[in-house]
């Protein structure tokens, strides 16, 4: 099919969900604590330019205690951890094809189960504008990317070097095949990409269609608002998750809020919640590469401090459950109902305890209801964008593992290990 047209954008109706009552128990922000943290990643030459971003959990079909967490680290590639947070494998990102070209930078990762009898880790490579695909067996990853895999959004290396490349990612499987939903850096585009078996056990892919979310918004005061950024840069999407039972994509447009979209990218997107900064004008200063905000007209949401980032779903057996979103600007996580109009339920943060620091400025997160090792009621994993103890002139990140039942107890949520299993 052809990509959705500009006419669609011109006639897009934005539906806003809001005003839902919030239970008294969810007022304020609860604090939970990590049980495990992974080794520090250092984003400098000495640390291999490792900058953590997004995690995914792979469930071992033979023994869930042997499941692993896969984390992206941009230029440093992928790190694989056991349930105690120990590194068990490291896979580097691809080198640049030429001296003036971009190197591989792994941004987001998700797991697709049962593709041709194999489980796959699918990764967005924002440096190369490609997907990298790894077969998973016994908790170890093997690169099975088709050598002829195309660029996702571009047609030439010169375009790739302009950095409008594959960015956020979530996998989706239905009766027609296995897909990746991939967002485009510095654009509002989201693409539906179908995974394809290739000779020799390799896996390729093909872009099916794209959808462009709005770049500007009509406000109740009659003005038009667009998030402030450098000229030519649109409000991008990164955090995404697909509700595998309902075939629904949730996409976090960083400065705007969370969208609910049909996973096949048809139909009309619905804006579930807005960032607090929605509608606030800004003036871009090229000298500082910063935006100076103007007066807040009061049209923003109440729960998400920009950027809206990592999204993940906790499934319940009754078809209900929870959508979790990283509110990166205030280092908290917002919780919404999975069903209906995605009513807001509460907020939590991951704090410091027992020598493990909390989670700050989180990009990506993931949750599973499946019992995994000591996390017998489910596991929540979040990227920590400011790991401590700090070291001068070094950017340090890692991943924190938290028990789902700790989150559920603090917010009055349910624990349901009989909910949707990723293996069916």
Topology at a glance:
Layout (H helix, E strand, L loop, with lengths): L5 H5 L19 E3 L3 E2 L3 E2 L12 E4 L9 E5 L5 E4 L5 E5 L14 E10 L2 E8 L4 E8 L2 E4 L13 H5 L4 E9 L2 E8 L4 E9 L5 E10 L4 E2 L5 E2 L11 E7 L4 E6 L3 E6 L7 E5 L7 E4 L4 E4 L14 E8 L5 E7 L4 E6 L6 E7 L14 E4 L10 E6 L11 E8 H8 L13
Parallel strand pairs: 1-27
Antiparallel strand pairs: 2-30, 3-30, 4-5, 5-6, 6-7, 8-9, 9-10, 10-11, 12-13, 13-14, 14-15, 16-17, 18-19, 19-20, 20-21, 22-23, 24-25, 25-26, 26-27, 28-29, 29-30
Keywords: Hydrolase, Signal
Protein name: Hydrolase
Organism: Microbispora siamensis
Summarize the structure.
This protein has 424 residues and is mostly beta strands. 4% of the residues lie in helices and 41% in strands.
Keywords:
B-propeller_Phytase; about 425 residues; hydrolase; 5-stranded mixed beta sheet; hydrolase activity; about 40% strand; 30 strands
Strand line-up in the sheet with most strands: 1-27-26-25-24
Q: Roughly what percent helix?
A: under 10%
Report the structural category. mainly beta
| Count of individual helical segments | 3
Distance between the termini: 30 Å
Tell me about the largest β-sheet: 5 strands, mixed
What overall geometry do the principal axes of the alpha carbons give?
globular
Mean pLDDT: 93
State which percent range the strand residues make up.
35-45%
| Low-pLDDT stretches | 1-26
Radius of gyration: 20 Å
Number of strands: 30
């Amino acid at each position: 099919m052809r990509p959705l047209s500009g006419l669609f954008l011109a006639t897009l109706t934005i539906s806003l969900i809001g005003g839902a009552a919030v239970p008294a128990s969810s007022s304020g922000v609860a604090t939970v604590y990590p049980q495990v943290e992974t080794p520090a990643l250092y984003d400098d030459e000495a640390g291999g330019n490792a900058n953590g971003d997004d995690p995914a959990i792979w469930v071992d079909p033979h023994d869930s205690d042997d499941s692993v967490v896969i984390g992206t680290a941009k230029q440093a590639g992928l790190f694989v951890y056991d349930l105690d947070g120990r590194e068990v494998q490291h896979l580097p990102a691809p080198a640049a094809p030429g001296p003036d070209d971009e190197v591989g930078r792994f941004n987001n990762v998700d797991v697709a189960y049962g593709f041709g009898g194999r489980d796959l880790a699918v990764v967005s490579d924002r440096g190369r504008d490609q997907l990298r695909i790894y077969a998973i067996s016994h908790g170890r990853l093997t690169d099975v990317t088709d050598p002829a895999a195309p660029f996702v959004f571009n047609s030439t290396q010169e375009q790739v070097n302009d950095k409008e490349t594959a960015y956020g990612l979530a996998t989706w499987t239905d009766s027609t095949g296995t897909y990746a939903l991939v967002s485009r850096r510095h654009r509002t585009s989201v693409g539906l990409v179908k995974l394809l078996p290739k000779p020799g056990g390799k896996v390729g892919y093909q872009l099916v269609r794209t959808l462009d979310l709005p770049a500007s918004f009509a406000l109740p005061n009659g003005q038009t608002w667009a998030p402030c950024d450098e000229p030519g840069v649109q409000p991008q999407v990164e955090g995404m998750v697909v509700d595998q039972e309902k075939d629904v994509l949730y996409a976090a447009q960083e400065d705007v809020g969370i969208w609910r979209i049909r996973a096949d990218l048809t139909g009309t997107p619905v804006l579930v919640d807005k960032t607090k900064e929605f509608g606030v004008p800004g003036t871009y200063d090229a000298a500082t590469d910063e935006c100076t905000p103007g007066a807040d007209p009061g049209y923003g949401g109440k729960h998400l401090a920009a950027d809206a980032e990592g999204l993940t779903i906790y499934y319940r057996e009754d078809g209900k459950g929870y959508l979790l979103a990283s509110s990166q600007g205030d280092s908290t996580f917002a919780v919404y109902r999975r069903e209906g109009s995605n009513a807001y339920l509460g907020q939590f943060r991951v704090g410091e305890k027992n020598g493990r620091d909390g989670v700050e400025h989180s990009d990506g997160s993931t949750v599973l209801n499946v019992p995994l090792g000591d996390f017998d009621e489910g596991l929540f994993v979040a990227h920590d964008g400011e790991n401590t103890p700090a070291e001068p002139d070094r950017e340090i990140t890692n991943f924190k593992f938290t028990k789902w039942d700790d989150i559920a107890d603090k917010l009055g949520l349910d624990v349901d290990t009989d909910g949707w299993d990723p293996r069916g």
